[in-house]
């Protein structure tokens, strides 16, 4: 598959795939639906809205580049479109918070960064 | 039918100058002596992996180094579940008559062979290369995520998790081979440096050098007989982003299958050996396995249930949290200790009755699970 036009490829967007056959949403990009095996998956752009599922504030990083950012909050967010993703977020985010995605630079790359929805 | 006929374990901690092969050889030599077998009796080798010295054919590298020409040999890689996955495979190959005496061995100079940063970074690669690793997570962060959710759903507090670190340390005090032998308190755990909240330094297992080995045979080689009664696996995902809900994780599936395979229930178990890479891992697995009710494992630690003289002695060598974690050998130490307990050879750590033991291993981020029942025949 080609380079993705989302944050993993340096574009300010969160993409996911929706299965035309079974309706499943998946975040990790592949050429088929991992739920039913059908190959008619369609790439869609997510709204960036979601609910915080889990958080972990990283205080000890393992590389020189990431150490410059500590502490940083790793979060799992349940997107409104029905998939779960890992991202960064505000350090005081709590489970259940309604959030919306922005983007930030981290260790030389662009990463999704969730903020509380106001 | 298969029997664990011998076990070998080095001390865990610093082994300056020892390579992964050295540590594997030391453990294998101990296991052979324990089983009263010679090198030439071994016709199968299963080994884990070494992050310090990766090799695409580690089992044959080891076989050549150790001086064995086996009829069957290869490595196995299931992260922290590797030790018990190898035991399960050895059991089945021996039971099928493919191998008579399988040497299961692993060892790694993970502490002195590379920097701690390199270790942490190598392990973080279990994350998704595109969607997780660029975010700078660490293994403690993956488990920190799980911990935050578990605490949220079941009302578990950081002080509850700390109890498991204290228990493992108390057990390690009685083992001369343990990496950490200074007593700690809940307050010490709470005050330890934050690593990936809610996990703090003392919630995390250390990085260690060490080696472990055992031999799985088709018939007993001495009077002491410990046999594999039944085992099973479950694999629900690799990456934490793709993990199922907390009540659908693999430990519950694996234990249900292992119960069916062995005809045993939790009420039969007298000794428990459960993977404890982090305090949250141990808390969750105990509850998933049915060794404690949901959110109640810490209360059972406080009441002494999992202590050496309690109803369900747990990881009496100190577990990964205090005996140490050298990779695949880490969880193999749980089996070595279980074997010592079952044969009444655990010295001052000896428990009253270890006639039936339950072992459980976890690899990845609660991704891969192996449950295994051992039974002392006499």
Tally of helical segments of chain B: 12
Please count the helical segments of chain A: 1
Q: Helicity range of the residues of chain A?
A: under 10%
What is the average of the pLDDT values of chain B? 96
Find the count of extended strands of chain A (DSSP E, 2+ residues).
Answer: 8
Q: N-to-C SSE series of chain A?
A: EEEEHEEEE
Structural class assignment of chain B: alpha/beta
Strand percentage of chain A: 35-45%
Short summary:
The complex is a heterodimer of chains A (118) and B (378). By secondary structure, chain A is mostly beta strands.
Task: Detail the topology: elements first, then pairings.
The complex is a heterodimer of chains A (118) and B (378).
Chain A: E1 15-19, E2 25-26, E3 41-45, E4 49-58, H1 64-67, E5 72-79, E6 84-89, E7 98-106, E8 109-116
Parallel strand pairs in A: 6-8
Antiparallel strand pairs in A: 1-2, 1-3, 4-5, 4-7, 5-6, 7-8
Chain B: E1 3-9, H1 20-35, E2 44-47, H2 58-66, E3 72-75, H3 82-95, E4 101-109, H4 116-124, H5 139-154, H6 158-172, H7 186-191, E5 194-197, E6 199-200, E7 209-217, E8 226-235, H8 250-262, E9 271-274, H9 279-289, H10 297-302, H11 319-323, H12 328-342, E10 356-363, E11 368-376
Index terms:
heterodimer, A: 118 residues, mainly beta, three-stranded antiparallel β-sheet, 1 helix, 8 strands, 45% strand, globular, B: 378 residues, alpha/beta, four-stranded mixed β-sheet, 12 helices, 36% helix, 19% strand
Q: Describe it for me?
A:
The complex is a heterodimer of chains A (118) and B (378). With 118 residues, chain A is mainly beta. Chain A has one helix at 64-67, and strands at residues 15-19, 25-26, 41-45, 49-58, 72-79, 84-89, 98-106, 109-116. In chain A, a hairpin with a 2-residue loop joins strand 7 (98-106) and strand 8. Chain A is globular. Chain A starts with 14 loop residues before the first strand and ends with a strand. Chain B has 378 residues and is of the alpha/beta class. Helices cover 36% and strands 19% of the residues of chain B. Chain B is built from twelve helices and eleven strands. Chain B is globular. The mean pLDDT of chain B is 96. Chain A binds chain B through residues 8, 27-29, 53-63, 66, 69, 71-72, 74-76, 84-88, 95-96, 106-107, 109, 111, and chain B through 117, 120-121, 124, 128, 130-132, 134-138, 140-142, 144-149, 152, 193-199, 239-242.
């Amino acid at each position: 598959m080609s380079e993705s036009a989302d944050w993993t490829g340096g574009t300010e967007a969160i993409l996911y795939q929706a299965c035309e056959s079974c309706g499943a949403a998946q975040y990790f990009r592949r050429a088929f639906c991992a739920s039913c095996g059908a190959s008619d998956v369609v790439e869609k752009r997510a709204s960036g809205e979601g609910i915080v599922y889990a958080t972990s504030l990283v205080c000890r990083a393992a590389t020189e580049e990431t150490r410059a950012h500590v502490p940083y909050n790793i979060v799992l967010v349940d997107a409104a479109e029905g998939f779960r993703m890992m991202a960064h977020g505000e350090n005081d985010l709590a489970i259940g918070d309604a959030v919306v995605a922005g983007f930030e630079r981290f260790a030389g790359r662009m990463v999704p960064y969730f903020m509380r929805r106001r | 039918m298969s029997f664990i006929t011998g076990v070998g374990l080095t001390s865990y901690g610093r082994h300056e100058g020892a390579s992964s092969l050295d540590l594997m050889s030391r453990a294998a030599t101990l296991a052979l002596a324990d089983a009263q077998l010679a090198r030439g009796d071994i016709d199968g080798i299963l080994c884990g992996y070494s992050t310090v010295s990766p090799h695409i054919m580690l089992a044959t590298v080891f076989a050549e180094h150790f001086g064995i020409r086996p009829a069957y040999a290869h490595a196995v890689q299931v992260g922290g579940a590797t030790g018990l996955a190898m035991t399960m495979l050895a059991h089945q190959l021996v039971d099928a008559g493919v191998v008579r005496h399988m040497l299961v061995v692993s060892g790694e100079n993970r502490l002195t062979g590379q920097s701690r940063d390199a270790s942490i970074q190598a392990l973080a690669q279990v994350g998704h290369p595109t969607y997780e690793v660029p975010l700078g997570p660490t293994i403690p962060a993956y488990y920190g995520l799980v911990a935050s959710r578990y605490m949220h759903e079941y009302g578990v507090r950081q002080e509850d998790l700390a109890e498991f670190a204290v228990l493992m340390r108390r057990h390690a005090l009685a083992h001369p081979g343990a990496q950490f032998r200074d007593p700690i308190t809940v307050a010490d755990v709470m005050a330890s440096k934050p690593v990936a909240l809610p996990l703090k330094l003392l919630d995390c297992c250390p990085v260690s050098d060490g080696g472990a080995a055992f031999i799985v045979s088709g018939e007993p080689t001495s009077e002491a007989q410990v046999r594999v009664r039944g085992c099973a696996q479950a694999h629900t995902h690799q990456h934490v982003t793709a993990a199922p809900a907390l009540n659908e994780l693999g430990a519950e599936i694996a234990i249900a299958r292992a119960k069916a395979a062995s005809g045993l229930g939790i009420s039969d178990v007298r000794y428990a050996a459960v993977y404890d890479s982090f305090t949250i891992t141990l808390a969750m697995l105990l509850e998933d396995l049915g060794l404690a009710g949901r959110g109640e494992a810490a209360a059972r630690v406080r009441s002494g249930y999992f202590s050496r003289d309690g109803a369900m002695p747990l990881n009496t060598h100190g577990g990964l949290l205090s005996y140490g974690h050298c990779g695949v050998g880490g969880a193999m130490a749980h089996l070595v200790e279980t074997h010592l307990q079952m044969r009444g050879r655990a010295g001052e750590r000896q428990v009253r009755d270890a006639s039936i033991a339950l072992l459980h291993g976890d690899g990845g981020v609660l991704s891969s699970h192996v449950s295994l029942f051992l039974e002392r025949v006499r």
